[in-house]
Amino acid sequence: MSELGAVILVVEDEPQMRKFIRASLTSHGYRVLEAERASEAVMMLTSHNPEMVLLDLGLPDGDGIDLTKQLREWSRVPIIVLSARGREDDKVAALDAGADDYLTKPFGVNELLARMRVALRHAQSRGADPSVQTFEFGELKIDLVRREVFRGEEELHLTPTEYKLLVLFAQNAGKVLTHRQILKEVWGPAYAAQTHYVRVHMAELRKKVEVDPSHPKLLVTEPGVGYRLRDRV
Questions:
Q1: Contacts with 61 (C-beta within 8 Å, 6 or more apart), sequence order
Q2: Count helices and strands in the chain by DSSP H and E runs
Q3: DSSP annotation string for 157-198
């Protein structure tokens, strides 16, 4: 998938917002499809196979979170939610449903484009050569075969839980992971409510991978939602 000329499906019932997004994206080389309703969005996805979905939550025939859950049953297309709902609970619900990112209206064009680039890169990495067994983020290098982690020339000694956490973030670089998603993947579904597990282990992991743990540049907090590993340091 090439970012240049990528087909983006905009699911938005407000004409002025669709016009704004269409103008912003086409001027940067994207091709735009539009849908006003959830039912139209599903048809567009099956018939046109877009490379990304920009999704409003409040649609005339359904809720965007329900649509996200429906799409995730059969599609891994990147989904960025664009919504006037700014509550943390709404962001968490959308991300837990399978959205890749969330922007609250009003938002700037440059921020939208940056989030889109990250989501498209993440989608590309999911389809990358499975024989690639290393991740690099600035000075941080993770070798999955040797189970070794380096920051520059220094080998970092992580606990099994810290290593599992770091690999999870590396495999989802640039994407927000909610507390629930992290707990499910690292500790298992039975621990979905134990958010303090994440906070404690993230603090310890940052002490090892960050140059300045009190001002993290790599593993950043999304307040009230979760964490994100920046894929460009």
A1: 37, 38, 39
A2: 8, 14
A3: ---HHHHHHHHHHHHTTTSEEEHHHHHHHHT-GGGTT-HHHH
Give pTM, 2 decimals: 0.76
| Calpha distance 126→3 (Å, rounded) | 15
Total residue length of the chain: 233
**Burial tier of 118 (Cβ tally within 10 Å: 0-12, 13-18, 19+):** buried
Q: Which two tokens stand for residue 102?
A: 């969330």
Mean pLDDT of 46-56: 94
Residue 36 in tokens:
């006003």
State how far the alpha carbon of 188 is from the alpha carbons of 132, 183, 184, 228, in Å: 26, 6, 4, 20
In this predicted structure, what is the pLDDT of residue 161? 94
- Residue 106 corresponds to which tokens in the numbers above? 């009003």
């298992």: which residue's tokens? 188
**By C-alpha distance, which of 81, 76, 79, 121 is closest to 102?**
81
SS3 104: strand
Give the residues across from 11 on adjacent strands: 35, 55
pLDDT of residue 3: 64
Both tokens of residue 5? Answer: 């000329």
Q: Let me know: does 225 contact 176? Beta carbons within 8 Å.
A: yes
Do 7 and 31 contact (CB within 8 A), yes or no? yes
Residue 82 forms beta bridges with which residues?
103
Report the candidate in 84, 76, 86 with the shortest Cα–Cα distance to residue 175: 76
